[in-house]
Design a protein that fits this description.
The structure holds two protein chains of two kinds.
Chain A lengths: L2 H57 L3 H14 L7 H13 L3 H11 L6 H14 L2 H12 L14 H15 L4 H12 L5 H15 L6 H13 L1
Chain B lengths: L1 H17 L12 H10 L18 H14 L20 H8 L2 E4 L8 E4 L2 E4 L1 H5 L2 H15 L29 H15 L5 H14 L9 E11 L5 E5 L2 E5 L7 E5 L2 E5 L4 E4 L30 E7 L2 E7 L3 E6 L4 E2 L3 E2 L4 E5 L10 E5 L3 E6 L4 E8 L4 E7 L2 E6 L4 E5 L2 E4 L7 E15 L3
Parallel strand pairs in B: 1-3
Antiparallel strand pairs in B: 2-3, 4-5, 4-23, 5-6, 7-8, 8-9, 10-11, 11-12, 12-13, 12-14, 15-16, 16-17, 17-18, 19-20, 20-21, 21-22
Helix pairs in contact in B: 3-6, 6-7, 7-8
The chains are: A mainly alpha, B alpha+beta.
The complex binds zinc ion.
Zinc ion binds next to α6 of chain B.
């Protein structure tokens, strides 16, 4: 090989090395810019998400979306759930996303005995998880009313109707402001003469008045355990 | 509104993360499972509306959901041999069901029924299709038990008492259709591992609600205790779970009364709460603000007596005056119409010696005992008279207890009144009270 060639190769290698060096620097520069841009995008996205969450908190999610999520979740009641905790979290999130129109809509669903039964049970659950004044009133009125939304007396012989109302009573008892929960139960005690529901109302009130008593769910489970163990 | 549109867009993305919406098969039954269910249970698919794997509006899909829940539902196995006990093996609902089923079809030939079983062939009616998922699964388990020759008898209590349809089982231990259905709900509630939280909650409430409807010996009862006042009225004694416990009592003249919340001392105008669950250490009078006695707070002294009592499936509250009584109108939240009394009223009692059922008994000034029937607001003479030496009469565990004027408690037995073996002292007053810290479970 001639000397000229060595020089040529050295020059090529040098250029290649420089190019690589330069490329590296440029890439670094690009990366830095991209990262900065990403950070900005992320910040923007975070702000957007926070704004969206604030909006959801203030106005709830759009009704169309709420209905779609609600129907999907109701359908899930008929399915095996390998992660019940995740389902619980999902329902809580949906309840948090509800606005007053959705609460009103759920009240209509639970008060209509022709609605899908799983949807009614889910609606009571969401009103329970919502824990605001509107949801509490919806549960209270559902239990107090002697008639369905279609003007007929609710059928005391259908145990599902009773069970839904018992579920609503538990929702009321779980309201975070204890005094309000007690006074709501107190009001219902003067409205409900069905022995079973009246007993549930009394039991829930007693638990709130005497903290050390077992709550109604624990009492139920203890009794049912005795049956199946 | 811009905010709305924006949040909708963001939420759609979030939604895709936490709900498997975009998966089109979400909620569908695997075809292989469906075909196996159809074969195992000899399902007349056409009668259910044709094969449908995804749309739960179609009855076929409802049935497939139910069978999948029965096949794949799991129960917590920690603890001892709880699954060996029971009517149906908890680990094997599917195979048990399969063994009890010769065929399943959809029909509407017996409209008053939810479903029926004829020699192992089940016909699911419209009522079944309208039920909650839990109710449908419970119905299938229920029907399967009938294949083994378990039949219902007439209801002796609860909302179906007096109807001609045989709809009840003797008790839980009989292990009939209501028993296995109950067992399923109880297991889902207590040991269920992979069920939707709403399904589990409904199972708990369904079990509790049904325990008093479909069994002639109800499974769960409100616990009852006896509350007696010492002769000097200085303390109350509560007989609960076979033991006497001392309790404080408001130092005020008046009669001890049972309430839906426990007990009060009622002086004719006001009611003062008796603490059943604790001793506060203070002797202050605490006005009862929780039981129905609060309804009297603004009332005049013309009220001579007041009772809360249960009859059938309802609770009643009644106030009594010299020659009339007034029932409380729950649905309207106010006092109802007066009912005239055909005698001069002396006092009321929720029990009468010789009657094992509680109710409202009205004692006239001449000692005759009348019974008020709240369902039709009739007053009938029982033909019984109030014993001159009797102070109070209660029903405790199906037995009459009588507090005599001399402070002794007697129990009514087949051979007449005998001193109640649990009584340790002499007493000045006696009632039963509900205890709300648990249930009495009647399994045997
Ligand atoms: Zn049956």
């Amino acid at each position: 090989m001639k000397k000229k060639h060595y020089i040529f190769f050295a020059a090529v290698i040098g250029m290649a090395l420089f190019a690589q060096y330069d490329m590296g620097k440029r890439l670094d520069r690009i990366r830095t810019v991209r990262d900065a841009k990403n950070a900005a995008v992320r910040a923007q996205e975070a702000t957007a998400k926070a704004q969206a969450e604030a909006a959801v908190k203030a106005f709830g999610i759009p009704t169309e979306e709420f209905v779609a999520k609600f129907k999907t979740e109701a359908g899930q009641i008929a399915k095996i759930q390998n992660n019940p905790e995740a389902v619980q979290a999902r329902m809580q999130k949906l309840a948090d996303e509800m606005n007053s129109r959705h609460v009103e809509g759920l009240y209509e669903i639970i008060s209509d005995d022709k609605s899908n039964a799983d949807e009614r049970a889910l609606a009571v659950e969401l009103l329970t998880l919502k824990n605001n004044t509107a949801s509490l009133m919806a549960l209270q009125n559902f239990v107090a009313n002697t008639k369905n939304i279609n003007g007929e007396k609710w059928d005391h012989k259908k145990e599902f109707e009773t069970v839904l109302r018992a579920q609503a009573v538990e929702g009321i008892a779980g309201y975070p402001e204890k005094e309000i929960a007690i006074s709501t139960l107190n009001y219902l005690q003067q409205r409900v003469d069905q022995k079973f529901l009246n007993d549930r109302i009394s039991r829930a009130s007693m638990n709130l008045l005497y903290n050390d008593n077992k709550n109604v769910t624990q009492q139920d489970e203890e009794a049912l355990k005795k049956l199946v163990e | 509104m811009k905010l709305f549109v924006f949040s909708f867009f963001i939420s759609l993305n979030l939604m895709a993360q936490d709900m498997p919406y975009l998966d089109t098969d979400f909620g569908c039954t695997e075809r292989a499972d469906a075909e196996r269910y159809v074969q195992d249970f000899n399902i007349d698919v056409q009668s259910f509306g044709g094969m449908e794997l995804c749309n739960s509006q179609v009855d076929t899909k409802k049935l497939l959901n139910d069978l999948e829940l029965l096949e794949k539902g799991r129960f917590d196995a920690d603890g001892s041999n709880k699954f060996i006990k029971g009517f149906v093996p908890a680990t094997n609902y599917y195979n048990w069901m399969k063994g009890e089923t010769r065929g399943v079809e959809r029909g509407q030939d017996v409209p008053y029924a939810t479903a029926y079983n004829s020699g192992g062939y089940f016909t699911m009616q419209d009522g079944w299709a309208k039920l909650s998922t839990l109710g449908r699964v419970g119905t299938i388990v229920h029907e399967a038990r009938h294949t083994g020759g378990y039949y219902h008898i007439q209801c002796q209590q609860g909302p179906y008492q007096g109807t001609s349809v045989s709809g009840c089982d003797r008790d839980y231990n009989y292990g009939g259709s209501h028993g296995v259905e109950m067992e399923y709900y109880a297991r889902v509630s207590v040991h269920g591992k992979n069920f939707h939280p709403v399904y589990k909650k409904m199972a708990r409430l369904m079990a509790i609600a049904r325990s008093n409807i479909f069994f002639n010996t109800p499974i769960l009862k409100t616990r009852e205790a006896v509350l007696a006042l010492s002769q000097d009225r200085g303390r109350a004694e509560l007989f609960d779970n076979g033991q006497w416990i001392n309790r404080e009592v408001p130092s005020v003249a008046g009669r001890l009364k049972r309430t839906s919340f426990g007990a009060v001392v009622f002086d004719g105008v006001r009611a003062f709460a008796v603490e059943l669950y604790q001793n506060s250490g203070f002797r202050d009078l605490v006005s009862d603000t929780y039981s129905y006695y609060k309804l009297l707070r603004e009332n005049d002294s013309s009220v001579k007596d007041f009772e809360e009592f249960d009859s059938g499936v309802k609770r009643y509250v009644v106030r009594m005056m010299e020659n009339k009584l007034t029932p409380y109108d729950f649905p309207n939240g106010k006092w109802g119409r007066d009912v005239a009394l055909p005698f001069s009223f002396a006092k009321a009692s929720t029990a009468a010696l010789g009657k094992a059922q509680t109710g409202l008994y009205l004692v006239s000034t001449s000692g005759e005992i009348y019974n008020y029937q709240p369902q039709n607001q009739r007053i009938t003479n029982t033909g019984l008279t109030w014993g001159l030496d009797h102070k109070e009469v209660i029903v405790y565990k199906g037995q009459n207890l009588v507090l005599m004027n001399n402070g002794q408690i007697f129990a009514s037995t087949a051979s007449g009144l005998e001193p109640w073996s649990e009584a340790k002292n002499l007493y000045s007053d006696l009632v039963t009270t509900p205890v709300y810290d648990g249930f009495e479970v009647i399994k045997e």
